[in-house]
Queue: 4 jobs
Job 1
Amino acid sequence: MIIATTIAEVRAQVAEWKRQGLTVGLVPTMGYLHEGHASLIDKAVSMCDKVVASVFVNPTQFGPGEDLETYPRDFKRDCALLTEHGCDMVFHPEVSEMYYEDAATFVEILSDMPKQLCGKTRPIHFRGVCTVVSKLFNIVTPDKAFFGQKDAQQLAIIRRMVRDMAYGIEIVGCPIVREADGLAKSSRNTYLSEEERKAALILSQSIKLAEQLLADGERDADKIVEAMTKKIETEPLAKIDYVSAVDGVTMATVHDVQTPTLFAIAVYIGKTRLIDNTIFE
């Protein structure tokens, strides 16, 4: 696997692949990779001739007081996983490679999409996400890019950005990967103590409750949200950020379940903020 640290290296290699008529897939990550990321690599390998993964903890999507400095990092381990799953190149730049000190340009969606769910308490987050993903698209020029459904709002926003900006890149959403006990895979799970790890199961349990209510024919989104909220509130270590039902495309709040409806939650377990979701399609 090629390890590239500069934009020039990536562009030169991708240009060579494209001269050979090969398709290129991109998997953007912030590193500390787990089985969820591996599933994205596997999907990319199955759909593209060459696969590029980025490992970059993007500072512009972290707000004041968030975990930029403490976000887990282990690039050697990341490389081992990427190599095992058939990634062809990893792009691992320094912040100075991605952002000029006097950078003054950002990519931002001005609709209400980034103001819902996670955007309510992380107001600059999706501006940073759109900016770095846009830069990665310009650097790698992939044919397809792969994102996890766990970050459902991010996935919807990137799809809108790609549409609005006419990138011509196919965005492929991949299912949530879970631990054996149901907890959604996340790099931030490493922050949890043993007691908090057990408490965190309340997230997937509330998601399963929503899925069961939907399977039983419940179509009142407010009732499902209320049931999920009550379930989470039974866990003393859990503090709800949000429990919401939104349109799966626009992220607008819905009260009646139609297709697609996203049921999304963000919950603090101790000091660690975790997210999970399910979508009715």
Job 2
Amino acid sequence: MRAVWYEEKGLPADVLTFGEMPDPEPDAGEVRVRVVMSGINPTDSKRRSNGRELTLFPRIVPHQDGAGIIDKVGPGVDESRIGQRVWIFGAQARRPFGTAADYTCLPSDYAIDLPAAARMEDGACLGVPAVTAHRCLFADGPIGGKTVLITGATGRVGRYAVQLAKWAGARVIATGSSPAKRDLAVALGADHAVASGETMLAAVKEVAPDGIDHVVDVAFGNNIDAVTELLRKGGVVATFASDAMPRPEIPFHLLMYKNANIRMVAIFDMREEFKQQAFADINRCLAEGRLSAHIDRRYPLEQTIQAHEALEAGEVQGSLLIDVAKA
């Protein structure tokens, strides 16, 4: 099969190779998916650049997300799954072979049936960002009727968080760094969209003077002071990133007196029941036409290097797909 792989850490052009390798075979409990589209996320870039799993595997085919068609099943998997359209979660999590190839093998539960009304493009974008958004929103119970603040609301995770929160019946306040992003957040369903950065605190107070119940935060270190002031007693701050401040300081006593819950989200290590609930809810929302992706760029498999470079240069505003095969 055609595939892209790396055997050492480094920059895309230095370590990524496009070539041929043997077709994989599914083990017990696994399915093999003929990949139609592969999705790229920042986590894929970070794994390659820091070589995090190269001590476990000598060769890694990158990318966690994707969509395709099951063409083979391993022992213990019902053969009725052959031919099903699926979206893929965590193909390369603790495994050497992701979706940047003609075929990938993964546990059957991580190849999720794609609703009939959904496109392959929709499925290929879901995995990492949609499951992260779901966990940030629902890890601490129902959010129906609550006021939810979503920072970076038009990013990969934020976009899904806005849509899932509205689907669940929350009042959503979104932040965006430009008028165009704020308009997009409203188009996605946000009840209010305000500027991010230094004016966020005052802007949120204006539209939610009684405070916020729940926060989905993309920049924990930058936002924690403002978010803490906005938070109601017993509120939740769910965060999945703090890139600009990897060792943030927190207003401990104010958070304590508010009985706040800080929820750190890392989806690959969460319990299986939580993953399955995320898959089910995401599929319901998708089947109801309430979940949409924004695809910024697409590349053929042989241009995966260029795709990684575009991602790392900050050029991509939305999902980035690799077209592997025709559906």
Job 3
Amino acid sequence: MEHIHHAHLPRNDYGKLIAMIMLFCLLAISGYALQHTISCFLLSWIIAYLLDPLVVNAERRGIKRNYSLGLLYVLLGVLTVFFMTFIVPALTISWNTFVRDLPTYIMKIKQMAQEWKALLPDRYGSDEIQWLIDKASGNIDTAAEKVGLRVYNFGTRIFFNLFNIILSPILVFFMLYYKKTVIETVTSWLPDGRRALILGIAHEVDSSIGGYLRGQVAVSIIVAVLSTVALLVLGIPHPFFCGIFAGAASVLPFIGVIIATLPALFFAWFKVQTTALLGQTIMAFAVIYFIEGYIIKPLVFKESMNLNPLVTIIMVMALGETLGFWGILLALPIASAIKITWGHFVRGDFTPR
């Protein structure tokens, strides 16, 4: 009588699996404990990644890397002086005005809730509905306290991250200076049989991610500037705050357009409480995002990553929840890298021949 032997993992494979799980947990714990250091490193890496083409173009023109880095930092220094002299004061004034007007906005929300409560017909004034209205009205104070606390935490976080802002230029310099050395060292670690394949995939990923990051930064800046100008023309309060928010929201695929309009609509409503200004605000953002979608992006994004919309949304949600802002920003590049690598795997490029 034949015995059927079931396949089991050898003991050493179980050990490798357990070791991988423990290593993953250790990396997760380390990442949480060193979140500010990782945030500073990611910020520096993205800045270096965006600036590297300028240094490469300078080298192609015969300028040594040391001199090109020096010229780049002189240019950045001039831009920093301009930013600190003109942009920062305007942003500070806008932020202080927003914090000062926040209690007024909260009081108006409570007043509107009371007015809606008074307009409720008697036939709908059952005990259950009345309880829901009272509960919602009572939660406004709690929401106000949470908003105030978040505003304070946001300001505290900005102050704490000033250290990262100061340290980042130093890290960026060394990342750009030692770029070739790091690439050569990592390349030497690759197995000879797979070196050409891995380097080819790396070049594809670099082209896709580099084009996306540089294009997205350009798009966000253009959207922020156009939104700020439009809101200044319309006379909506806190135009700089709303413009920067619109530029940051443009990073989100599909839903970024909707989210970007919410602060502007909020402030427009509380200024005049008429549908005319709301319609003008919606029309302004519609024109801006039409220009962004049909003029700016086709020019900036020369190579599309061609990602599935469902995969894009899932990656943004998952990485955004685990890594916050950096997860949202890097979700599409990571998805693109996975897609490129998986394509080579499906074609059998990793199979020994």
Job 4
Amino acid sequence: MIHPEKPRPQITARDWLSLLFLSCIWGSSFILIKKSLVGFSFFEMGLMRTVVAFLAFLPFVFYFSKKIVWRRWKEYLLISLTGSAIPAFLYAIAQTQITSIASGILNSLTPLFTIIFGVLFFNTKSSLLQFGGVLLGLAGAVLIILFGSELYIGARPVYGLFVVLGTMSYALNGNFIKRLFQNDDPLVLGAVSFLFVGFPFLLIAIYIGIPQKVISEPAAQLSLMYLTLLSVMSTVISLIIYYHLLQRTTALFASSVTYIMPAIVLFWGVIDGEQLLPFHFIGLLLIVMGIYLIRKD
């Protein structure tokens, strides 16, 4: 059942601190994706990112089993697919061809698609100013995809579109959480949402031989370390914070975590030797201006 949206809540200092902490965690995820891809294919990485998060959440499923409304399994599955499983594969395949900097900046489109999907599917009111913000943000994304996202000579910057699809998935997830799970415990929600995809993914990982690969290949062992850090920090802990922030504030405020994330993304990218291009800054400026306009209304 879809519940009517509540009046706009008061944003507190606690909410801003949560937003800052979440930005630091998620801003670091793109360099961890890059490191995880050294020893894994994008498919293996997408599987294992979900599997590790599933295993980390599993004890909470047993602990909170009485609080879980099992008849809502379809809604839990929807949250898991849009918030974790689908983006895990999309961001992994994108970063086989584009830099972590480009991927992180393109991720800033999430608030833009949050307002677009809110208007189209969730009866969210919009204004001409917000529409202008969406156009600015999309223009910035086009610049980065066309001119600022190549990982190396011969790479295909069009792979930045996979990040765009990932931001669409996150935007849908934010709206779904706000409308379907406004009053649910964030820890319970995070734990049960992985249950329905984590176990099948674990079986697939075993079937295609990922455990044997980790045992026999040093590169896979190192990548598993980065991937575990990515899953625990950027998926498990961050989802709990994000769901709590969504419930306390609005989908648009929570998605504006992308205001701060680009600074973290740029920092790690430069540290790892990636090249900063003028189009990175121009595209980022347009996206941030777009986010500002859609939140100004």
